[in-house]
């Protein structure tokens, strides 16, 4: 039996117990203990009784699976699992358990080793779990093998994100892009658990026991849908090209950043509009563009889909409208949630993604958001008067060191603010205007010399 178990969440004490790992086992996670045959039968019987009496809508449940690679710390593993659980929650799925296994390379057949697979299977049977979510992409053969072995739906990271995109998309273009990307991703992975896809939109799908003929029928249907969606997307993109041609001669600014950092909140603050801003991953999937005028300088501001760790470039590429807004922007406003303990890792993910989509050479105004949730790093003398408990519980950031480091890197002084509370809006406004003016002068070198209308202090927006 592999040494590494899982984080246990909200389970019945009679069914399972925590086992403290032996010293030097190298994991912070308790182990799942195999239930007895009697408990398995009791568990199945109680689930049948519950189904008879439970009339409320069923919340789908999942277990999470990730591999631990060399050099990964316990904190990093926990952060990655928390993010995966947040993704599942965004889709409306409840996480029951988290499995980990220390392996440098995934098993070519089932991703995890044989012993770990048996451990997962025992848990699924015991608790009647609906799906297994992996924190990596699976090959088509791995997905098929896992579904054959575990008899439940299998999600990998890309499929999970695609379903969230499908759920959140609002515009015709975004919906078409996501549907196309999802069908293209699922086509080689279609199995008995993923049939009748036309009935799964907006949710996590249904399980079925279809035969090979039904799967082949679904594959033909999907190929037809892919052809139609490509044609539809070409027509939509033609309209987008026409719209973008009309925007020439005006500075374009794009908000970028990790998902759930406050980009839409900042967009609302600037444009005084009501763009959806929620504490959920990928609350924004559609690209939103607004015209803004500050100090007599007009520019276009776009809110784009957030980036995330392990987001394959081919998924980003499916959002051509978002890529176009970023690639064609004159200035990028990179929003960062400075209250997140892994914010520097998030900056690195966004920077790498911008490089991958050929937008890494653009000027960047870095905005450290949510400063209301952190404190300035105390000096050595000040820290002596702070209790150890407060030092451990409070999130401290050295604002000056952070500002100096990223100003040196980007050539633009970062801004610190709390968009949700309206804190330091003026500081952000001044920094944004200064950078927009630099870009505006490149287009209209003499524009500012002839200004006659005073727009100072006003935000203006239009479709």
From TrEMBL:
Record-linked Gene3D superfamilies = 6.10.250.2860, GTPase HflX, N-terminal domain (3.40.50.11060), P-loop containing nucleotide triphosphate hydrolases (3.40.50.300)
Q: Name one GO cellular component term.
A: cytoplasm
Q: Which SUPFAM superfamilies match?
A: P-loop containing nucleoside triphosphate hydrolases
Domain Hflx-type G, residue spans: 251-440
Task: Please identify the protein, giving its name as recorded.
Answer: GTPase HflX
Q: Which family does it belong to?
A: Belongs to the TRAFAC class OBG-HflX-like GTPase superfamily. HflX GTPase family.
Sorted alphabetically, the keyword list is: Cytoplasm, GTP-binding, Magnesium, Metal-binding, Nucleotide-binding
**Self-association and partners:** Monomer. Associates with the 50S ribosomal subunit.
Q: Does the keyword Nucleotide-binding apply?
A: yes
Q: Where in the cell is it found?
A: Cytoplasm
A GO MF term: metal ion binding
Top-level taxonomic group: Bacteria
Function, please? GTPase that associates with the 50S ribosomal subunit and may have a role during protein synthesis or ribosome biogenesis.
Main site of residence?
Answer: cytoplasm
